[in-house]
Fold this protein.
Amino acid sequence: MKTRTMLAGLLILSALAAHSQKYITKTGYIRFFSDAPLEKIEAHNRQVSSALDLANGGFVFNVLMKSFTFEKALMQEHFNENYVESDKFPNARFSGKVTNIKDIDPSRDGVYEAQVEGKLTLHGITKDVKVKGSFEAKKGRLTGKAVFPLTVSDYDIKIPGAVVRNIAKTVEITVEVSLDKANP
């Protein structure tokens, strides 16, 4: 009986320890930037969910496409209706891992380089991506930053000929997530 009780206690403690390795946020940030010959287009989204598992390096973020805000309402309308088709493809998602997770120590304040690789799904298309980023540890919080260059045609996003010089062929997606330790 004692052995079973001790074993059950160890299982509970190990589950709690594994859970305490997770960092999450529901208020991450993504910036969309297009620098084309005729126009610069920028949008911001502050409704990004993200999680990082320090035990295995698992890293995900999910973004609601309609949450991007643009300077001009017409740009936002075209982005959602004509390009990313937000009604049909409401979310973009990255699922992968930080391959050098063992180099990141949230208990020691500092900036750590990160190698991130995984699958980015946008507009119903999933592609392998690999980028360099960083995590800053400060007072138990981890802030991750990375820039994803995204070739629009790779995700089957069609740009009409009339505006082809207004939108860059490769856009810049900047991700910044401030992650807090998940409550056990």
Summary: The CA atoms of residues 9 and 119 lie 37 Å apart. The beta strands are 22-35, 40-53, 58-64, 69-70, 91-98, 110-122, 125-138, 141-151, 170-181. The chain has two helices and nine strands. Residues 2-19 form the longest helix (18 residues).
